[in-house]
Description:
48% of the residues lie in helices and 11% in strands. The protein contains 13 helices and 7 strands. The protein has helices at 16-21, 24-32, 34-40, 45-53, 72-85, 87-92, 94-105, 109-120, 233-262, 279-316, 322-349, 366-375, 381-394, and strands at residues 125-128, 143-147, 150-157, 168-175, 180-186, 192-194, 211-218.
Amino acid sequence: MSQIDAGWGAGPSGRYEDLAAGFRPVFVEIRATAVGRDAERRLPHAEIGWLREARFTALRLPLQAGGHGASLPELFNLLIELSAADSNVTNALRAHFGFTEDVLTAASPEWRARWTARLAVGETVGSGVSETGPAKVGQFDTVLRRRGDERVVDGQKFYTTGALFADWIHLSAQDEAGAPVVAAVPTRAPGVTIKDDWDGFGQALTASGTARFDGVVLAPELIKPETVRFPYAMAFFQLVHLATLAGIGRAAAEDAAGLVAARARVYSHGNAGRPADDPQVQAVVGRVRGNAYAAGAIVLKAAEGVQRAAEAAQGQGRAAAEPACALADVEVNQAVTVVTNLVLEATTVLFDALGASATKAEHGLDRHWRNARTLTSHNPRIYRERSVGDFAINGTRPPREYRVGTA
Length: 407
């Protein structure tokens, strides 16, 4: 069934349905086991493997490089569909798709060619940026040191989302002088330890726990020549979260409709002989679905702004693309609170269409709210609203980087 036939509207391009058709059978398989995996805390190793085999992880690579040549709106629409199947899987691949953008915009032709080839054969990348230690904002406790002729990494990262499933960790660190360092660390290198110790109540299957680096030797070609990220990174990474939220909303709407359709018991003070015919129940399901539809539409509109920023960066260079990148940040920031509210409401009010049996663990409906609430706790939305207000009033561009640490 096409996205149009399902009532979610047209995709972002004329070829979108053909592009999505190759992945939808995988999405169906992923969704079929999502509730059980969440209940049993079974990590989606197999599911991410299916996506690799389908070349989903190479979406953004050019056709001539072995990818699908997907635009950013096409990517984000597919992330909505994947998130409707299991939002954990989308989040686990967030760092991989961000690393891909870094590769596509890298200034070094050698770095770009080397990593394009690796991504084209299905190699994947997890996150190694955030820390929970005492490092100050803008600094890291993870350090790349010289040891004779070798370069060695020591330190610890948290929120290493997706690293446990990946071949590589995209590492942000600093050298002995405090200068920033960016590198790719093999997940199976001696001295690398990755733990699934993330204990959040949502997004529990993303392996967003601890990675330790104890004397990890890095070959020179694994250290990136430039340390800056792609210029539209802030908008991109936040929009992945919003696409994931839109997918959660879509899954919540479909689950609510399916359970109402199958329900036989009614209340004596209801309005029909079947819950499916009760206009008040229908209105609740319609409200949940409307919220999900609006969230998806907003994501795709914001994705157009990120696409403009990407095209400016590739066609005009980083400095000239700055205005387009700043405007992409504004568009995404404007979307954050609206999409968040739509999905948090949808994942709460869906229970009003059902009885107490809807809270049974076998349905897993609580996972929608837990996952949504966890995602919306990243990069607090209160600061996004302030940033938008400052732009609207004073013309101030949003911050170009977000970092966490001690003051």
